[in-house]
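Narrative summary of target 7.
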Amino acid sequence: MSRLFSLLAIPLVLSLILTGFLTYALYLLVKKNRYRLLCGIVANFTILSYFITLTLILMFLNQPMLLRGYFVLVVIIAIPIILLTAISAYLFIFNGLVVWRRESHSLGNVLTLIIGFLLIIVPVGFHLLNHWWPHSKTITFLQNVSTFFVRYLLFWVLTFLMSFVITKLFRPKYDQEYVIVLGSGLIDGTKVSPLLGSRIQLAIDFQKAELKKTGKEVTLVMSGGQGGDEKLPEGIAMKKYAVEHGAPADQILVDDKSKNTFENMLFSKELLEERGFNLKKGIFTTSDYHVFRAAGYARLVGLNINGIGSKTSSYFLPNALIREYIAILLNHKRFHFLMALLIVLLSALIFV
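Modeled conformation, tokenized:
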């Protein structure tokens, strides 16, 4: 028993110190700016450190009942994760087919379908190549590179998903002066889509809630220009929709020039500055999957504001999150390109 204590004492103390440090670091990071991938990285390592620390504590206590209960709990959590991982390719394909039936047949809407097929084709392809050309150094090298890339992408997927969860925890205070509503495409060039309508309704609900709680009026900024296939600017259509759903017309500003999220934030900021608004007293609304990236653009133009997201249909959420994930990767393409080169180099060194 004493030997067990002596073996576990130092690792347990170190684990407790590390867990405390990571917890405090995460608190500071989220408090300063929750819309960073660094928050997701630290959050994942914090969760891992709690798991390791709890395991060490239970081993240190050496109580059979506690250890058995803990083992059962870990198994209960692990089984669904293992099963979902094992059938992930088929789940992606199923989701892709659902999106294909319900949405437009654009490349952005078939991402889960493509990923599902790749998860099946790539392993089968390497298996066949190894069968046809056994002991081929080239195939082994390509397989090593593929494995490294999958693990690298998985790390950033988990980071992004945790960052997404952190953004969902935000609840704005009812002391705002404005709400920026980010536009999206119009149906048939004139009508607000259900997705865009949910963003507008979220802003209206916040406007009404703040008026009820504090008596203060909140100005809505409808932000969206006119696309090539649209008959009027999104901002105009959004204002019309908002008025029809109970928002006072005199409390709505319109940005009808912006073509993307960066311009949504930039032109909305210009409108607000012209009218003397306190730029720190505001939020923005968009779809929940888009909040993280949109907040980055807000900070890029000097708007240090938070966002709230309208709920996305469950069938569409995986596809939407993958699109956001790819967009975030592309925002840091130089870094990821260098990491890709490093992966190839490491694979070559292992190969040699």
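The domain at 178-312 is CATH 3.40.50.620 (Rossmann fold).
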